[in-house]
Amino acid sequence: xxxxxxxxxxDTSGADIHGENAQIRERGxxxxxxxxxxxxxxxITGYEAGRxxxxxxxxxxxxxxxxxxxxxxxxxxxxxxxDWALMENMNTTYGHAHSKMRGLVARRFTxxxxxxxxxxxxxxxxxxxxxxxxxxTGSIVDLKARYAxxxxxxxxxxxxxxxxxxxxxILGDGEAQVxxxxxxxxxxASVEQGLMEMADLVEAKRGNPADDLxxxxxxxxxxxxxxxxxxxxVGTLSFLLGTGTETVTNLVINxxxxxxxxxxxxxxxxxxxxxxxxxxxxTLRVEAPVAHLPFRFPTExxxxxDVTIGAGEPVLMNFAAIGxxxxxxGASAGSYxxxxxxxxxxxxxxxxxxxxxxxLGRLEAEIAVPALFAHFPDLALAVPASEIKPQSTFIMNGRxxxxxxxxxxxxxxx
Length: 414
Description:
Blueprint: E1 8-9, H1 17-26, E2 30-34, E3 40-44, H2 47-55, E4 59-60, H3 63-66, H4 68-71, H5 83-86, H6 96-106, H7 111-116, H8 118-133, E5 140-142, H9 143-160, H10 170-175, H11 184-206, H12 213-224, H13 230-261, H14 263-270, H15 276-286, E6 293-298, E7 302-304, E8 307-309, E9 315-317, H16 319-322, H17 326-329, H18 358-375, E10 380-381, E11 403-405, H19 410-413
Parallel strand pairs: 1-2, 3-9
Antiparallel strand pairs: 2-3, 4-6, 5-11, 6-9, 7-8, 10-11
C-alpha cells in the first residue's frame, strides 16, 4: 500500500464527518485512512474516482476471497468492522454468487412492485401523522423516533415478511453493526443475536409462506436446490433489514432538517418554484444517508487517477464526501441548494452493487417529507441545529434524534 502522506485516523464517533472528509480530500480524491486496530484502508472522496471504482468489476466485496490481510491471517478477529467484509449476504459476494443473490432479491424491487407499495406507505405516513397530532401543540417530539424510523421499519418489515411478534426486538440487534463506537466483541454479540433471530423467523416462515421476500427466497431454495443456502438467506435478509431502516431513516430526517434550517428553500417548494424531488435529491447529494461504507477489495491492482490500489487492499466508499466534491459542484459543494441544476451524487451507489432498494427509499422520502410539512405547516426545530447530535458512527450519516416543536395541524390552523 502506498504511503506518501500520513493517513487520516478515522474518528469512530462520527462527531464531524464533513470536517474529517475535508481533511481526507486534501490528500486527494483517493487517500489513505486508518481504521480501528490500526487497519489501513483507502477512502474514495472524488466523484469521478468513486464512479470508476463502483463500476469496476475488479472491485470485489468478498473479504473471504479477496482481502489479502485476512486471507493471510493478519486481521485480528476483534476488528470491529470485520462483519462488513465477512458476513454472508448479498453485499459481501462477488461475481456469479453476487449476481445470483441479487437476481433473486431484485424481483421484489421492480418498478411495478415499488409503485404498488405506494398505498401502504401513504397509510403508514397517515397513521404516524395522526399519532403525532395527539401531542399538544407546542410540545417537543423526536421525529426520528416518532416518524422516520417507524415508517422505514414498517415498510421493510412488510417487504421482507418479518412477523409482527419479532418487530419489536430484531431491529436493535442490527443497529449495533453501524455503531462504530462499540467494541468488536459487542458488535459481534449483537450481530450473532440478530442472525439467530432471523434464522428462527426463516424456519417459521417455511411452514407459513406469504407474499414477501423471505418466502420468495425459501421457495427458490426448495424448488430445485439452486437457491441460496440458509446462511445466505439469513444474512441477506438481515442486511436488507438494516439498510432498509437506517438509510431511509437518515434520508427522511436529513431532508426535514435541511428544510427546517433553510426556510428559503422550503418556501421555493411551497411557491411552486422547486419540487419536493429537488429537495430529496439535494439532500442525497449534500447529506448522503450512508457516509463511509466498508469494504471493497481489488482482485488485482487498480489505478484510480494517479493512485494505484494494490490487489486485496481494503477500500471504503466515502459517499458523504463524493456528493460534496468541489470538482463537480464548485465552491458551493457543501451548501444545500435545491435549485442547483446539477445534483450528481453516488449516494445509492453505482454499478453492480448499487442499492437495490433505492427506488423504494426515494418513494418513502417523497411521500413522508411533504406530508409532514403539509400536516404541520409551522413545524420548527426545538433546539438550535448545532445542538442536534450525529449518530455514533462514521459509517452512517444521521442524527441521534430530531427534536421539533409541533405546530397546530393544518386542519386546526386553517
